[in-house]
Known about the structure:
Blueprint: H1 12-25, H2 35-45, H3 56-64, E1 76-77, E2 80-81, H4 83-93, H5 102-108, E3 110-112, E4 120-123, E5 132-138, E6 141-146, E7 150-155, H6 159-164, E8 165-170
Antiparallel strand pairs: 1-2, 3-8, 4-5, 4-8, 5-6, 6-7
Helix pairs in contact: 1-3
Amino acid sequence: MFNQEPTGYFGTVTEQAVRAFQRQQEIKIDGIANKLTRQLLNERTSLSPTTGEFNVMNLVADASEQLGVPYLWGGTTAEGFDCSGFIQHVFSKSGIQLPRTVAQMWEIGKGVDEPKIGDLVFFETYTAGPSHAGIYIGNDQFVHSGATSGVSIGSMQAKYWKDRYMGTKRMY
């Protein structure tokens, strides 16, 4: 459940996610979360914001609010995040409690073939198995907290991430 006062902020990350969703649904691509876009989004996530349940657009908006927060190993607050602390923080704002580590998130997630907005994308980086993750926002992009970039947008097509991609899991 979204447990904060709305900020009214609809930034570039949110607009990109809306455009990617509209493209995927083969409807007019304008980046505006109009009535049809919201209806389709709610149908695809099987949860309705009117019931106070998980809403993927709130998740993306909450993630975008953290852009620029520095990386901090073990960090779980807006003072600094590691990748799992960032994901845990963003999902908790939508009422979803996730485990603390990427490996634990990998274990509980439901595997999906194609990432959809709000899914977690997992990577094998510094150790065998899932060791990094981000929130998929559409258009082959994800928001994550990287050791060199802090909270930022990454591309699934970048060679580094493409070579290390493990899979996608749904947490809602």
